[in-house]
Amino acid sequence: EVQLVESGGGLVQPGGSLRLSCAASGFTVESSYMNWARQAPGKGLEWVSGIYSDGSTYYRDSVKGRFTISRDNAKNTLYLQMNSLKPEDTAVYYCALGRGFIPREYKYWGQGTQVTVSS
Question: pLDDT tens for residues 30-78?
Fold first, then answer.
């Protein structure tokens, strides 16, 4: 059974940092295409970042240089380190399994974790 469980969200001030975690089971993240997507209030799903089985990483332009996606293969866990956070980063962040950069095509999702960037 494929399961993804996000954690690490919370309230942070602009310019602050958070590290999100996604604990995976039922498959191996090292051999998979893993992604982070987010949904801001009243908005649709937005792809944020991905790391694929060869270790290549991808970011949407608005987070490039601020966010870092990584994985711990021994722990079978995906991470998203978020630095220099902005209010527009406020969203529910989801871990997802799937190829490409279109969230609606992903088949497996976590429950999401709320990130709020505010003073």
Answer: 999 999 999 999 999 999 999 999 999 999 999 999 999 999 999 999 9
Q: DSSP string spanning the chain? A: --EEEEE--EEE-TT--EEEEEEEESS-GGGS-EEEEEE-TT--EEEEEEE-TT--EEE-GGGTTTEEEEEETTTTEEEEEE-S--GGG-EEEEEEE-SSS-GGG--EE---EEEEE--
Distances (CA, A) of 42 to 6, 99, 102: 21, 26, 19
- Residue 77's DSSP bridge partners are 23, 72
